[in-house]
Specification:
The structure holds two protein chains of two kinds. A six-stranded parallel beta sheet of chain A has the order 2-1-3-4-6-5, with helices on both faces. Chain A folds into three domains: 161 residues, 3-Layer(aba) Sandwich (Rossmann fold), CATH 3.40.50; 159 residues, 3-Layer(aba) Sandwich (Rossmann fold), CATH 3.40.50; 171 residues, 3-Layer(aba) Sandwich (Rossmann fold), CATH 3.40.50.970. Helices cover 35% and strands 15% of the residues of chain A. Chain B has two domains: 90 residues, ACT domain (Alpha-Beta Plaits); 72 residues, Alpha-Beta Plaits, CATH 3.30.70. Chain B is built from five helices and nine strands; from the N terminus they run βαββαββαββαββα. Classes of the chains: A alpha/beta, B alpha+beta. Chains A and B meet through loops of A and α1 and α2 of B. The complex binds thiamine diphosphate and magnesium ion (MG). The site of magnesium ion (MG) has 8 residues of chain A, from loops.
């Protein structure tokens, strides 16, 4: 067996059946070995797209996503995807070819120090130096990527090792004495958490991305104790939005109910969150009175930003049922009434007197699509609107670039989601700016006839930046205008062989969405929407979450203690 | 921001690339590495490193947790938390201009228990071990004679407890101690 054959065999042993990649000189030998295997290789049109697809494949299936690239430029193209997966804790294994061992370090053709470059953006990485290490390294990579806090692992394999004859032990054991993730939550800490919870008068639960793999346990726990629940951007889908307890999203573009609950609570039960600054706002004013119970699998997240009074390190799948066992329905009726009142008083609403608006389009999409559909998003205003108006109902179905905020993520992510979930509806909610960052993946979508509804929320500008310029830069709109040079997206789709429609009004929007959701084919819908629509509420960067700006978008109403006007930034 | 000095003993797998990962963790959090020593540990396949770092008190705990997360890091011990012994070794070359000076220098050196490791007609090289304070004091004493060159290893440190049971527990190391 050659090294390349060993790589394929080891991948098959891990149960890999789909790989997203792009070939090249330093990895051709592996592609040659793959040619005879049963692995379904998806030829992406850019390595960044391949990594995002692998990332979404993991997020939507729970199975490690795999990506392959060649040395030098192929490998450097992976960096954004790796950083994205690292930030959002997505388990992917990336395999790169490198120049032959003897040439490493000589500035050979297409050589880059991939091991060095990827260190800070991977959970772990390898530069393999002996062909006989390959089976063990690949086994370790999958183990590290998928256990504990998931993350990306990269394996760099010089070309000569791919050709060399393997003489080692294919069943060699893993050798990871320094890697022992804590899975089982500490019993004493769980009891302490239950006690603190029992004493609380105004507790809330904040659910983050770490809860996606424990959705059943989460629901059972919440139904048992009946506690108000807030889902972060990464936590969307982990808890059903139809439940009374659900208050929406916290933070910068969170719901009024969620942010008010945070500002007034006396206990936060944090479930797989990392207290990102987009969630907490100004940290010194973030729930200053609250007891913090922090449940997370990563001990380094405990007290990193917000001091945890009761840390519980472990897998939520293990912790939540035990916490539930020690708890019963909380005696917090007044608080339940209060949070429910906030939720009722500040529903999602938008002005439809103006021309077609983003929120309305996203609302229509939600109405017409199936309950178990998967949503992927790009980054910008449309992403926040999607989070608020199209929060999905099932775990692992809202796929968005949370931590890194990567424009160009959504379209390739839709590819990964569609391939990982055949038969499921996938909707990619994109901005006219973001989608152009990995637009080439339309070719992949066409080739595999992936039934994705690509909804471009086309406001003719880099809307999120425009909003900040309007609010904080005296309406000086520097370099955000796209409309004069955007392509005709419908024609562009057609050039790729994909059905495309340009949509300008409500009526045709409705019809097009209805048709698209039944078509079971890729369709690109380009919605021309009102340019100056802003995402509200908004907590300005650096302000506390209690200081929300409602803006002028919501109809007049009695908003008592929230700020109306953009000018009133504290 | 108050900067604190921390002496960290980090036991790592003896593999290429481990140090880079550790160093970049420190750099990202604004920690300056004052000294660093790396050598084989008593156990085959593992190295022991001693970092003396200066950084914000608030972040040191976080950096230690991040270090602990690195796959090839086995244990992290912050010596600032417990009683410890630390030593470093210095080689110092000083000029000798007369025989009176030679006697004087040798007297000071013997007070410091520094050993002569090389003798030249107009220079001497001393080897001295001790803690940081002793090194500084010896340098001060030698300055008037003219220090040509000196080199220090950086600190190594051990906790004053029995073994280092944590390492053995976490690593389940069965290899015999050399
Ligand atoms: C790769 C990358 N470059 C730049 C940014 C900064 N950025 C954040 S949102 C945004 C505008 C996105 O525009 P569009 O995709 O049209 O979405 P909209 O906000 O208009 O809905 C920009 C430039 C980013 N997040 N990612
Ligand atoms: Mg836009």
């Amino acid at each position: 067996m050659t090294g390349a054959e060993v790589i394929i065999k080891a991948l098959e042993r891990e149960g890999v059946n789909t790989i997203f990649g792009m070939t090249g000189g330093a990895i051709m030998v592996v592609y040659d070995a793959m040619y005879d295997s049963k692995i379904n290789h998806i030829l992406m049109r850019h390595e960044q797209g391949a990594t995002h697809a692998a990332d979404a494949y993991y997020r939507t299936t729970g199975k490690v996503g795999v990506t392959i690239a060649t040395s030098g430029p192929g490998a450097t193209n992976l960096i954004t995807g790796l950083a994205n997966a690292m930030m959002d804790s997505a388990a992917i294994v990336a395999i790169t070819g490198n120049v032959p061992s003897g040439l490493i370090g000589t500035d050979a053709f297409q050589e880059a120090d991939i091991y060095g470059i990827t260190g800070p953006v991977t959970k772990h990485n390898y530069l393999v130096r002996d062909v006989n290490d390959l089976p063990r390294v690949i086994k370790e990579a999958f183990h590290i990527a998928s256990t504990g806090r998931p993350g990306p692992v990269l394996i760099d394999i010089p070309k000569d090792l791919q050709i060399e004859e393997f003489t080692g032990d294919f069943d060699a054991e893993m050798d990871l004495p320094g890697y022992k993730p804590t899975i089982k939550g500490h019993a004493g800490q769980i009891k302490k958490a239950a006690e603190a919870l029992k004493l609380a008068k105004k507790p809330i639960m904040i659910v983050g991305g770490g809860s996606q793999s424990a959705a059943d346990e989460l629901l059972e726990f919440v139904e048992n104790v009946d506690i108000p629940v807030i889902t972060t951007l990464m936590g969307i889908g982990a808890f059903p939005t139809a439940k009374d307890q659900w208050l929406g999203m916290p933070g910068m573009h969170g719901t009024v109910a969620a942010n008010k609950a945070i500002s007034n609570c006396d206990l936060i039960l944090a479930s797989g969150i990392r207290f990102d600054d987009r969630v907490t706002g100004k940290i010194s004013t973030f729930a200053p009175e609250a007891t913090i119970i922090h449940m997370d699998i990563d001990p380094a997240e405990i007290s990193k930003l917000v001091k945890a009074h009761v840390p519980v390190v472990g897998d939520l799948k293990n912790i939540l049922p035990r916490l539930s066992e020690y708890s019963e329905r909380l005696d917090i009726d007044d608080w339940r009434k209060q949070t429910a009142a906030w939720k009722a008083k500040y529903p999602e609403r938008y002005n439809t007197e103006k021309p077609l608006v983003s929120q309305e389009v996203i609302g229509m999409l939600r109405k017409e699509t199936t309950d178990d559909c998967i949503v992927t998003t790009e980054v910008g205003q449309h992403q926040m609107f999607a989070a608020r108006l199209f929060p999905t109902e099932k775990p692992r179905t809202f796929v968005t670039s949370g931590g890194l905020g990567t424009m160009g993520f959504g379209l390739p992510a839709a590819v990964g989601a569609a391939l990982g979930n055949p038969g499921r509806q996938v909707v990619c909610i994109a901005g006219d700016g973001s989608i152009q960052m990995n637009i080439q993946e339309l070719a992949t979508i066409y080739k595999h006839q992936l039934p994705i509804i690509i909804a471009i929320i086309n406001n003719g500008c880099l809307g999120m930046v425009r909003q900040w310029q309007e609010m904080f830069f005296s309406e000086r709109y520097a370099e955000i205008y796209l409309a004069d040079s955007n392509p005709d997206f419908a024609k562009l789709a057609e050039a790729y062989g994909i059905e495309g429609h340009n949509i300008h009004d409500r009526e045709s929007a409705k019809i097009a969405i209805e048709k698209a959701s039944k078509s079971n084919k890729p369709v690109l819908l380009n919605f021309f929407v009102y340019e100056a629509e802003n995402v509200f509420p908004m907590v300005p960067a650096g302000a506390g979450v209690a200081d929300m700006i409602i803006g002028d978008q919501m109809p007049e109403g009695d908003y008592d203690d929230v700020i109306y006007e953009a000018e009133v930034v504290k | 921001m108050s900067l604190e000095k921390h002496v960290l003993s980090v036991t790592v797998r003896d593999k290429p690339g481990v140090l880079v990962r550790i160093a970049s963790l420190f750099a990202r959090r604004g920690f300056n590495i004052e000294s660093l020593s790396v050598a084989k540990s008593g156990i085959a396949g593992y190295s022991k490193t001693t970092f003396v770092v200066k950084g914000a008190e608030k972040t040191v705990e976080q950096v230690e947790k991040q270090l602990q997360k690195l796959i090839d890091v086995i244990t992290v011990v912050d010596h600032s938390e417990a009683k410890y012994v630390d030593r470093e070794l210095m080689l110092l070359k000083v000029t000798v201009k007369s025989s009176e000076e030679r006697t004087e220098i040798r007297q000071i050196a013997s007070d410091f228990r520094a050993r002569i490791v090389d003798v030249h007609r107009n220079a001497l090289i001393f080897e001295i071990t001790g803690d940081e304070g002793k090194m500084e004091a010896f340098i001060e004493q030698m300055k008037p004679f003219g220090i040509v060159e000196l080199i220090r290893t950086g600190r190594v440190a051990l906790t004053r407890s029995a073994a280092d049971p944590k390492i053995l527990r976490k690593a389940k190391i069965t290899t015999k101690v050399i």
